[in-house]
Structure formats: structure tokens, C-alpha cells
Amino acid sequence: MKLFETIREMGHEQVFFCHHKESDMKAIIALHDTSLGPAMGATRLWAYAREEDALRDVLRLSRGMTYKAACANIPVGGGKAVIIANPENKTDGLLKAYGRFVDSLKGRFITGQDVNISPEDVRKIRQETSYVVGGAEKAGGPAVTTALGVFLGIKAAVEFRLPQKELHELKVTVQGIGNVGKNLCKQLHEYGVKIFVSDLKSENTEEVKHLYGATIVEPNEIYSLDVDVFAPCALGGILNSSTIPLIKAPIIAGAANNQLENEQIHSRLLESKEILYCPDYVINAGGLINVYNEMIGSDEENTLKQLNNIYHSLLDIFIRAKEEGITTHEAAKHLAEERIMRAKNSCLLSASAFRTSASQY
To answer: Which residues are catalytic?
Structure first.
């Protein structure tokens, strides 16, 4: 992996490598684009096998946050952070050291909770910086709102792709029963959806089987089930040349980030199989919407209103992709880049007007 060439090609503004000797805290903070506002993105703690894997993850995730904010019409830019550590080795000292690094960016990066970072961890990070959100768990917290956004995305996709189907007639597979996956199962169960689940932790699947009558399947069987919707809610890269040929579901709509292993190749492979793909950074924007509204002190009514925009944005993307003969991934990317470009042009016009006004004095 060519470090600086990769960063340049992906369009990042800045990437910070952070290390604290005493706690052995190792983190990478990536700021992708701040045209719409300060970079906002959660922090993931993971035992990456290689530091190159951590860098690749944070670069893709931060770019996804830029598109996520733009498609959700949230006035923030895209950023992300990863802490390279085994979750068992997470300490207060490590979290506080990380908080001090976030604070040193003076608000250019605002973070929150992702994989292996709990609301309690967020509160510890907040002891060192005010530039962190997600500890208050408003509207149920990011996991609840992310799941609700995915549920609304499933409704949009079913309306577009399977207009003859009612929600209670659906069969949905949920891959990954973490906080988001479990909350999605709850939403689906309330509408009478038949749920199939898989997870590497048997206690997670047993819980949703008990609570929501889910059928447990082996992880390697989840792709080939004859269902209406496949909802990936685990880690990324699961839509690839090995798994896509197995998928029978006509709709993919899940919460996982970076679902496409290769965005160009695999979005087109899905299109060739007539599978409707809900771009991940559009359908999983509920967590960002939640923490943004927590940051600005907005009420839950406004959060729910913005969540409903996920439904409408996806319908617009589906229609645009069909009319222009492009993939839904490309349609979502075009939508995001148009909004970012408008923001950049607006800043240029404002700066030009200021210089013209200043020159008169």
C-alpha cells in the first residue's frame, strides 16, 4: 500500500497518526472533506492484523462519512478514527489519551461510538475533550436510530423493487446481531417479518430467536437463502466476487459500512444480477443523524423527521439510477458530490464577495 498516494487518490484533507507511549494508544484519525462543516465520524476500536488494514479501513470509512452526511443533508464533513487495540486491552488511560488527541484538533473532528466503543467509553473520552457525542443516547442512541433508518430503507426498497409485497409478507436475513442488528430485528418483528439471522456469537442469535422468533442459520449459509431482503449488519467487504453469485435476495439493505469489497466491480455485478443495492452510507445514516442532533441540542421530533429523509433519498437514488442507466452506488455518489460541490462553490462565491467588498476600503 502506497501511503501518501492512497491518501491523495481518495481525496483526504488530512490524516493524523497518534501514539501515546504510556498507554500504548495507537490511533489514526482521517479527515476526508470538510466542505459542509467540521468532520464528524465515530471511533472504531479493533485488533487489526496489520497497520495497513487499519489505514485502509479509516480511509474508506471517513470517505463514506462525507457521502453519508451529504446524502442526509447534515451540515458536517466526513471523518473517522480507528484505535488499533484488542478490546480486552482497552483501558481508561488509553481512552483518555485518545480523547486528548481528539481535543488537540480543536473541533475539526467530532467523534462518537463505533465498534467496541460503548457509551461509557464515550463518557471517559469526554473527560478529555468536548468534541465527542453519543454518550447521552438520545432517541435510544445511535444503534436504535441506525436500525430505524435501515428499516425505513427496506420499506423504500420493497416499494420500488417488490411493489406487490406487504411488509408482513417479507422474509429478511440479518447478518450480524450486534446492537444495530438486534434493534433491526425488533423493528422487523413488530411488522410481522419472518427473520433469519447469523452471527459468529451464538449468544447473540439465541437472544433474537427467543425475543423475536428468528430462525438461526450458519454464517456460510446466510447468502444463499431464498428471501426478499439481505441485510448485512456486520463488518464491511462482504459483497464480493465470492458471495454475490450466491445471493438470491432481490434487495440488499443493511447497516454495515463499506459493504462492497470493490465499489465499481461489485456494484455492477449486483446490477447485472438485478439485485437492488441500498448504498450503505445512505441507508445507515441514522447514527450520524442521532449524534448530530445531540450535538446541536435538537429534539427527537427533528431527529425522526431527518430519519424519514432516508426513505425519500433512497427512492430518489433508485429512480435516478434507473433513468440514467447507472448503479445505485453511482447515483448516490453523484448526489453526494453535487451537494459537496455546491457547498464549495458557495464558499468560493462568499470569499470572492468578501474580497471585492474589502477592496473598496
So the answer is: 80
pLDDT single digits (tens) 80-91: 999 999 999 999
Other residues' Cβ atoms within 10 Å of the Cβ of residue 200:
10
Q: Residue 361 CB: number of other CB atoms within 10 A?
A: 4
Q: How far is residue 75 from each of residues 31, 98, 111, 312, measured CA to CA in Å?
A: 15, 25, 15, 18
- Name the grid cell of 128: 478529555
34/358 Cα distance (integer angstroms): 26
Strands 14-20 and 25-33: antiparallel
pTM here? 0.83
Distance in angstroms (rounded) separating the CA atoms of residues 361 and 354: 12
> Which positions ≥6 away from 266 have C-beta within 8 Å?
239, 240, 241, 244, 260
What count of other Cβ atoms lies within 10 Å of the Cβ of residue 258? 19
Q: What is the per-residue pLDDT across 177-235, written as a single tens digit (0 to 9) for each?
A: 999 999 999 999 999 999 999 999 999 999 999 999 999 999 989 999 999 999 999 98
Cα distances (Å, whole numbers) of residue 130 to 20, 66, 108, 109, 321: 20, 22, 12, 11, 41
DSSP-assigned letters across all residues of 232-264: E-S-S--BSTTTGGG---SEE----SS-BSSHH
Residue 279 CA to residue 286 CA, distance in Å, equals 13
| Cell numbers describing residue 315 | 427512492
The H helix count followed by the E strand count for the chain is 12, 12
Cα→Cα distances 302→34, 36, 131, 310, Å: 23, 20, 22, 13
Strand partners, 173: 196, 230
Sort residue 118 into left (φ over 0), alpha (ψ -120 to 50) or beta: beta
Q: Are 85 and 121 in contact (CB under 8 A)?
A: no
Helix (H, G, I), strand (E, B) or coil at 118: coil
